[in-house]
Specification:
This protein is 19% helix and 32% strand. It is of the alpha/beta class. It binds flavin-adenine dinucleotide (FAD) and FE2/S2 (inorganic) cluster.
């Protein structure tokens, strides 16, 4: 079920100069949210910016009825949001999207999160561990361009998983990209969960297909509506048996990232 309304910011934390964590009070959204799902947040009460902005659900506290997001200041909407004070009520719609498949069995997994891709993977790791999946079987590669862009507020380190931190410029953790480090971790067969910018996901998708490894990729897209009516987030995917009426006779199948995703199976997306 999806919920909409004005929900208060109950906690605001500044993680770096450009990265913030907000916790909101909404017992409905927090109890319904699954890892990989997102919320659409209106960053203004007037007409600019008109469209809400999508943010992954980072964490939930169902006892307190709260959920949180971590976001980076990117453009006009996130700049406005960063100035909001605790107590302010914001228009939120969610939880939206399909989310990740729960981890099955006790097969080792690798999670690869780049920048804004870290929050949904944190939620997946935290929930899986809470439900009995062994923390030591999760390798979490968490990367960003610089330490200033890095998203973790310290919680990842508390989960007891195998955490590998990297930045492109080496200002935090190992110097290198998430994809470089992921290649070293794919020696034995593991399932991969990845979220981050398109270029990173495309490279990961290629790696997984070369090595015949299963994976799920959570995509970013511009999302004007967030619930399937505008097609602003449409992407090309491999044709399958459930072709829609608009893409018959084409060698691709259009899917909307907001409702058919944001999580897609490795090998499903046509990147160019
Ligand atoms: C499913 C999903 C989950 C997300 N989760 C998070 C999260 O947890 N934390 C977080 O910080 N961000 C997340 N994002 C990205 C976030 O939605 C954007 O950073 C935000 O919409 C930017 O809004 P803005 O008004 O600040 O920037 P704008 O002023 O709208 O954008 C500035 C420029 O960036 C471009 N742009 C905007 N958004 C994107 C995008 N998603 N991809 C590529 N180019 C873009 C615009 O076209 C414009 O040119 C997520 C995006 C998606 C689709
Ligand atoms: S954002 Fe409108 S259909 Fe996906």
């Amino acid at each position: 079920m999806k919920f909409t309304g004005y929900f208060p910011i109950v906690k605001k934390e500044k993680i770096t100069d450009s990265v913030y964590r907000f916790a909101f009070h909404s017992p409905d959204i927090s109890s319904e949210a699954e890892p990989g799902q997102f919320v659409q947040i209106r960053t203004s009460d007037d007409y600019f910016p008109l469209w809400p902005r999508p943010f992954s659900i980072y964490d939930v506290d169902t006892k307190k009825g709260e959920f949180s997001i971590i976001f980076k200041i990117f453009g006009c909407g996130t700049s406005r949001m960063a100035k909001f004070a605790e107590g302010r009520k914001i228009h939120i719609f969610g939880p939206l999207g399909n989310g990740f498949d729960p981890i099955k069995g006790d097969r080792p997994v690798v999670m690869a999160g780049g920048g804004v891709g870290i929050p949904p993977l944190y939620f997946l790791a935290a929930r899986s561990i809470k439900r009995g999946y062994p923390a030591e079987k999760i390798t979490f590669i968490s990367g960003a361009k610089t330490k200033e862009d890095y998203f973790d507020d310290g919680c990842l380190g508390d989960l007891g998983l195998n955490l590998i931190i990297c930045t492109d410029d080496g200002s935090r953790g190992i110097k290198g990209t998430v994809v470089d480090l992921l290649e070293n971790e794919l020696g034995e067969k593991k399932t991969v969960y990845a979220c981050g910018p398109s270029g990173m996901l495309e490279r990961i998708d290629t790696l997984l297909s070369e090595k015949s490894i299963e994976g799920e990729l959570s995509l970013e897209a511009l999302m004007p509506c967030g619930f399937g009516i505008c097609s602003g987030c449409a992407i090309k995917t491999m044709p399958d048996d459930n072709r829609g009426p608009t893409d018959d006779n084409r060698d691709f199948h259009l899917k909307r990232v907001c409702v058919d995703g944001p999580v897609f199976k490795a090998g499903e997306v046509i990147w160019r």
